[in-house]
TrEMBL record, chains A, B:
Annotated organism of origin: Paractinoplanes rhizophilus
UniProt protein name: LacI family DNA-binding transcriptional regulator
Any Pfam family the entry gives: Peripla_BP_3
Keywords: DNA-binding, Transcription, Transcription regulation
Family matches, as Gene3D superfamilies: 3.40.50.2300, lambda repressor-like DNA-binding domains
Alphabetical list of InterPro entries matching this protein: HTH_LacI (IPR000843), LacI/GalR-like_sensor (IPR046335), Lambda_DNA-bd_dom_sf (IPR010982), Peripla_BP_I (IPR028082)
Domain HTH lacI-type: 8-62
Cited PANTHER family: HTH-TYPE TRANSCRIPTIONAL REGULATOR GALS (PTHR30146:SF109), LACI-RELATED TRANSCRIPTIONAL REPRESSOR (PTHR30146)
Source taxon at top rank: Bacteria
GO molecular function, one term: DNA binding
Length: 334, 334
DNA sequence: CAGCCTTCCTAGAACGTTCTAGTGGTCGGA
DNA sequence: TCCGACCACTAGAACGTTCTAGGAAGGCTG
């Protein structure tokens, strides 16, 4: 690019083609109101000059932004899949996506602010950590759809997985294999940890195993899982459910180092179906969320809000499903 | 958000505060030219009305976009780390980032087009797959910085790792451990595969091991590594270097299933230092790129181009370093 | 041939901001 | 007392687009 070279504008194209600016605008938008030959001619000139519409000016004038802001966290187990789904859904609806990432050195507040200035029509937040009050304040300004997290506030839409049901599935699977002594490695104070823990407890009770309920303190990292493994090795159960996949891999590693065979001696179930859980090397049985359905729903919901369509339910809860891989099997013979 | 509620503008704040629009603009930008008390007063009114500057209008008027477009690929082994680094560097330079993702169902062309319309001042592309001609065409319109890939074109800036050197490091490390029969699992037609293969071959020659050079067909996925493992099991070398970490994990798994102990019988080196390679469970010795340095450099280069500063070198090659973990060790005793 | 549609096109305002070129007032110095 | 410098502030144009209101030409109907 040579310096000082100005990008061509509608006016340049209009002058070159010998028509008015308004007509070029009509042609570029593909709007009705231009003759076939002129249309052809204008398009040709635009192509020759390398004209690119300026979406800023366009949006500024037309008021409608057709722009959805997405806040995602780098390193989030499945944000890649979610972005893929969101792009698809937005595309189908004729909307654009603008992304703002949360990184270890860029907090949510910054990410929100950036998108607000870009005049997005709505915000889709992937598993935000901000307190409910902050999200509510945000929702005062524009429609907000939160994914993968429960938010009890009437101004915020939520699309999330039925986390309790995810643990029901995990426990049911293990019980069906013959397990009874099933422990749960907890997610401490992380988003959704409480619901998963309660799901585990409910499921155990439902199977008449309330006396065998055993919740091990944990967290969201690999080292949390490894620590839990050390706590379990003294008196190992025959199966363990976990808060997430990362902690499950730490657990797996800790159990194996402790001399246990997985799944021969002990079965392990993760949560999230993270991309690494599919690696042949890890091959983790895990609870998967229906990413595509959830993405589509989030976009739809955002657009309904923008349009002001009345929406019956603020919160939509999607059932998860179990992906059975190699870390679960029947309990060892006594 | 109630429908029909217009976002407050400079004019609203000005009217409410009883001053001119221009003055509010001055205050909001923190520009000199306003009295302390008025400034205070205007800020207070702006806060009360919930005023948010409209970056579109701002950029439209001021011409300067201070906006860098970043095209990244979802599922790219280390794009998360790169984004983190880029945000930091852009922030330090007073620039904003706008992201456009390439997903399995959204190609690069689409990603480029989106950013062009946003009037970015420059583009930073993370390992683009587009042919050089396309990148060159893009560079006609605005400064383009390509990361993680060599592009031989005078209009395109490149910031990449010395991939050949990465394999030198890997081979040197293995030779120092005592290995001589070292094979390389190739990356087929992927970006950088050729240079890594040549790096391997050079290093082998440098150690006088040219007769032991052995390149196994591979690819970028886990299954490619697993296939390579099957090819190697008949006559296993004592060490293997690979095109990337994903293929290395497939290889690891295949070798172990074939009855070999890693690193007892055979050592494996990956490439990329992907996040999963750090998992205790995988614990892969691998070649790491200096992400922070590269991100900073890419942003700096982009800004220099925008400013029209003459830049000496189009291409900057950063040396990688080796991260030694648990998949390499001395060769087995004979 | 008047009247009325259509079709194709244009002028000019508007979007929310920044920028340029001021205006008017105060103050210090000669 | 007057001049100039400086400070606080303002009017209005400009950025590149879309939108509203309309105009000119041509064809159809009665």
């Amino acid at each position: 690019m040579r310096a000082g070279e100005r990008r061509p504008t509608l006016a340049d194209v209009a002058a070159e083609a010998g028509v008015s600016v308004a007509l070029v605008s009509i042609v570029m938008r593909g709007a009705p109101g231009a003759g076939a030959t002129t249309r052809q001619q204008v398009l040709e000139v635009a192509r020759r000059l390398g004209y690119q519409p300026d979406s800023r000016a366009r949006l500024l004038r037309s008021g409608e932004s057709r722009l959805l802001g997405v806040v995602f966290a780098v390193r989030h187990p499945f944000h890649d899949d979610v972005l893929t789904g969101l792009y698809d859904a937005a595309d189908r609806a004729g909307y654009e996506l603008t992304l703002s990432a949360v990184t270890p050195r860029r907090d949510e507040r910054t990410a929100f602010a950036g998108l607000l200035q870009d005049r997005c029509a709505a915000l889709i937040l992937l598993g935000p950590l901000a307190p409910t009050a902050d999200l509510a304040a945000l929702a005062e300004r524009l429609p907000v759809v939160v994914m993968f997290r429960a938010v009890r506030h009437r101004a915020v839409d939520v699309v999330r997985t039925d986390d309790a049901r995810g643990l029901h599935l995990a426990v049911d699977h293990l019980v069906a294999l013959g397990h009874r002594r099933i422990a749960h490695v907890d997610g401490a104070r992380w988003v959704a940890a409480g619901e998963r823990r309660r799901g585990y407890q409910d499921a155990m009770r439902r199977h008449g195993l309330e006396d065998l309920i055993r919740v091990i303190p944990g967290g969201s990292g690999e080292e949390d899982g490894a620590r839990a493994a050390r706590l379990l090795l003294d008196d190992p159960p025959t199966a363990v459910t976990t808060f997430n996949d990362l902690s499950a891999t730490g657990l797996l590693d800790g159990l194996r180092r402790g001399g246990l065979d997985v799944p021969g001696d002990i079965s392990v179930v993760g949560y999230d179906d993270s991309s690494f859980s599919r690696l042949a090397h890890i091959d983790l049985t895990t609870v998967a969320q229906d990413i595509d359905a959830m993405s589509t729903l989030a976009v739809t919901r955002a657009i309904e809000r923008i349009a002001g369509t009345p929406v019956a339910h603020r919160e939509t809860v999607i059932p998860p499903h179990l992906v059975v891989r190699g870390t679960t099997g029947p309990p060892p013979m006594r």
